[in-house]
């Protein structure tokens, strides 16, 4: 899959963000391949998230961009300048670390002044810029405090302030909200996003939290085993997963395993044991007769009992489990042939509810499922 | 549930509070009991004899302060930085002791800091392996090591034999019974005491801080100067304090390797005791103890106890 072809240029070009290009980057540790020929073209001012489980190569990719790791092959460009061999302190790339990495022996003011001192900026200018950036992150007047006197959320903001104060054209964030509780995390997600909109800096964000990735990113690169499985906007990834891994990692997915029996125009017919023939939009590259999985999101399945309709796949099953989650009910449906489906039905009047053991007929639109 | 809540109000609730207090107190007593054997041992076999020895300074052979008199009556002068300072022979021994302790401390720091830095930079498993090389000499008897230095440095020692055999010298160098030999022997013994606290503190320094500094534009020299060095200072303070105070009381090494001018306080004390001048020996020991405590107090006052014995935690 060529990633470079998929760049979606964001509307807010013209900020101070730089273009970042990973060109077939590879990183090996002995025989272990941590990053395997990753190519990624990030537009100026774009917010791109590297999403994946631990060990997928997302942090290693970020470390190579920051300069803490040197790739074994390939090149990284920032605005057309190759930087893979440039030492970190000459890269001018901001970074927010997972545990913030604030210098414990320095005050907030000294922490923020540090990158400016390294750039030989005058004292009064440093004081002014420190004040401005603290204003920006919503902590004015905190210059004299020590990091350990701050809450986790405040430390996180100071880390962002320190990474932004020297006006880097690229900002890297390595699971910056991982240590915070859920509520604060959601609040700061929106704050970081607002900051991004305001400054126009290119942000490359690493997380294993798919919800966070969906909320914040212009584009998400889903990584697995050192490779990018799929790269695209949040909606593309959610609605059109290209691989089983992407369908599983982002959101919840059902898979019905079967064999592609035949193709008819844009529609493929999947024979699944005990379920008959199910229809899905055809995907190039799958030959008739090969094993395939049909994937569909739980919220796109509806329980209904008024017969089949022309663009619905319908199957009959038995309710194996019901969980009431407040705004919806989550059903596990056992299908003939031994496979199972999860579906989510909204909790509102007019939606029939079922109990464990009830017979149920469920269906989903042909357009709402994918072959992987 | 309602019945239970009701029960716990009023007298029963007070009873429960008292019961918890009782449990807490029992827990505290358990810790006291755990400490007791060691405390009793120390008081009986260490605290009492030391106190008995030191108090002799005030009554042996007769009650009074006459044992301290020799320390304050000046008899000779000493040259220091071009100045002639009046100083009696005993004070001079204290002065030499401080000098030796200071030199040993500074050189141990200069030698030990890079070693600790290297140990703290490699993986923990490799560091444990390398640490054995620091600890083997540490586990070898001081006496054995001091004799080993005599074998190396003597007139017919290995170094002189080698120099003569190679034709680099026509007559042996005087290495043994010099201040240099004292420094060599003492630094050799003291290095682990410097390296261990330095290493412990340096291991605790979050490597991400160094990466962050680099990311913020600091070249390696600035990363060291602005981040690593300040964060390692508690280890420097702990190591220096340990080495300096241990050096003040050194006896065997300077006695075996030093010359006639390299008399340290503990040698002087031993000399007085062997002449059965218990009172004067005790007076010298008391002054040494006060000196050590004073230096300790100065260290902790200037740096703060937490910085000396705390870690580099963030």
Task: Summarize this entry quickly.
With 372 residues, chain A is an alpha+beta fold. Chain A has 8 helices and 20 strands. Chain A is elongated and about 75 Å long.
Structure in words:
The complex is a heterodimer of chains A (372) and B (314). Chain A is an alpha+beta fold. Chain A has two domains: 4-246, Rossmann fold (3-Layer(aba) Sandwich); 252-371, OB fold (Dihydrolipoamide Acetyltransferase, E2P) (Beta Barrel). Helix content of chain A is 23%, strand content 35%. A six-stranded mixed β-sheet of chain A has the order 6-7-8-3-9-10, with helices on both faces. A five-stranded antiparallel β-sheet of chain A has the order 13-12-11-14-20. In chain A, strands 15-19-16-17-18 form a five-stranded antiparallel β-sheet, with no helix packed on it. By secondary structure, chain B is mainly alpha-helical. Chain B has a two-stranded antiparallel ribbon. The radius of gyration of chain B is 27 Å and the shape is globular. Classes of the chains: A alpha+beta (372), B mainly alpha (314). Chain A binds chain B through residues 66-68, 87-95, 97-99, 101-105, 114-115, 118-119, 147-148, 162-163, 166, and chain B through 206, 208-209, 211-219, 222, 226-227, 230-231, 312-314.
As an assembly, this protein is: heterodimer
Fraction of residues in H or I helices of chain B: over 70%
Radius of gyration of chain B: 27 Å
Weakly predicted, low-confidence segments of chain A: 1-14
Q: Specify the CATH class of the largest domain in chain B.
A: Mainly Alpha
Strands side by side in the biggest sheet of chain B: 1-2
CATH superfamily of the largest domain in chain B: MetI-like
Q: How many domain regions of chain B?
A: 2
Name the helix and strand elements of chain A from N-terminus to C-terminus, one letter apiece. Answer: EEEHEEEHHHEHEHEEHHEEEEEEEEEE
**Shape of chain B from CA axes?**
globular
Number of strands of chain B: 2
Total individual domains of chain A:
2
């Amino acid at each position: 899959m060529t990633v470079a072809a998929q760049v979606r240029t964001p509307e807010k070009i013209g900020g101070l963000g730089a273009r970042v290009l990973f060109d077939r980057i590879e990183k090996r540790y002995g025989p272990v391949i941590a990053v395997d020929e990753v190519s990624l073209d990030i537009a100026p001012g774009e917010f791109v998230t590297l999403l994946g489980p631990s060990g997928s190569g997302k942090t290693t990719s970020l470390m190579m961009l920051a300069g803490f790791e040197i790739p074994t092959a390939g090149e990284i460009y920032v605005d057309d300048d190759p930087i893979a061999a440039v030492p970190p302190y000459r890269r001018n790339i901001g970074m927010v670390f997972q545990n913030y990495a604030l210098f414990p022996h320095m005050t907030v003011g000294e922490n923020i002044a540090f990158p400016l001192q390294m750039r030989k900026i005058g004292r009064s200018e440093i004081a002014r810029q420190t004040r401005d950036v603290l204003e920006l992150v919503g902590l004015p007047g905190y210059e004299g405090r020590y990091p350990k006197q701050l809450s986790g959320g405040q430390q996180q903001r100071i880390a962002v302030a320190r990474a932004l104060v020297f006006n880097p054209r690229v900002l890297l964030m390595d699971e910056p909200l991982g240590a915070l509780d859920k509520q604060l995390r959601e609040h700061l997600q929106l704050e970081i996003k607002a900051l991004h909109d305001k400054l126009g800096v290119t942000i490359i964000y690493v997380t294993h939290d798919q919800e966070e990735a969906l909320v914040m990113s212009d584009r998400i690169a889903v990584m697995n085993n050192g490779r990018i499985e799929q790269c695209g906007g949040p909606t593309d990834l959610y609605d059109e997963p290209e691989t089983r891994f992407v369908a599983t990692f982002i959101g919840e997915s059902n898979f019905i395993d079967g064999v592609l029996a035949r193709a008819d125009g844009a529609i493929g017919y999947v024979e699944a044991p005990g379920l008959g023939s199910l229809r899905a939009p055809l995907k190039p590259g799958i030959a008739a007769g090969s094993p395939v999985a049909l994937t569909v999101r739980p919220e796109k399945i509806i329980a209904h009992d008024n017969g089949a309709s022309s663009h619905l796949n319908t199957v009959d099953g038995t309710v194996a489990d019901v969980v009431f989650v407040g705004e919806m009910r989550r059903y596990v449906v056992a299908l003939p042939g031994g496979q199972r489906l999860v579906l989510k039905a909204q909790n509102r009047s007019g939606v029939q509810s079922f109990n464990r053991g009830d017979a149920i007929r469920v269906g989903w639109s042909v357009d709402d499922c994918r072959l992987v | 549930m309602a019945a239970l809540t009701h029960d716990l109000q009023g007298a029963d609730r007070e009873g429960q509070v008292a019961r918890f207090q009782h449990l807490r107190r029992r827990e505290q007593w358990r810790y006291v009991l755990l400490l007791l054997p060691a405390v009793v041992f120390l008081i009986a076999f260490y605290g009492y004899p030391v106190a008995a020895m030191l108090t002799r300074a005030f009554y042996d052979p007769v009650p009074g302060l006459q044992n301290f008199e020799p320390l304050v009556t000046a008899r000779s002068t000493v040259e220091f930085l071009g100045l002639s300072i009046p100083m009696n022979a005993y004070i001079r021994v204290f002065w030499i002791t401080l000098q030796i302790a200071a030199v040993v401390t500074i050189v141990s720091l200069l030698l030990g800091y890079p070693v600790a830095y290297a140990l703290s930079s490699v993986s923990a498993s490799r560091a444990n392996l390398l640490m054995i090389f620091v600890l083997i000499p540490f586990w070898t008897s001081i006496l054995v090591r001091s004799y080993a230095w005599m074998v190396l440095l003597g007139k017919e020692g290995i170094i002189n034999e080698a120099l003569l055999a190679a034709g680099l010298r026509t007559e042996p160098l005087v290495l043994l019974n010099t201040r240099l030999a004292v420094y060599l022997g003492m630094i050799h013994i003291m290095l682990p005491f410097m390296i261990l606290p330095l290493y412990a503190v340096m291991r605790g320094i979050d490597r991400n801080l160094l990466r962050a500094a680099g990311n913020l534009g600091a070249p390696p020299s600035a990363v060291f100067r602005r981040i690593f060095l300040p964060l390692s200072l508690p280890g420097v303070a702990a190591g220096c304090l340990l080495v300096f105070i241990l050096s003040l009381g050194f006896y065997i090494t300077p006695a075996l390797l030093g010359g006639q001018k390299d008399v340290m306080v503990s040698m002087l004390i031993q000399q007085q005791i062997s002449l059965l001048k218990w009172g004067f020996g005790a007076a010298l020991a008391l002054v040494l103890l006060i000196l050590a405590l004073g230096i300790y107090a100065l260290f902790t006052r200037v740096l703060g106890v937490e910085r000396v014995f705390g870690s580099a935690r963030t």
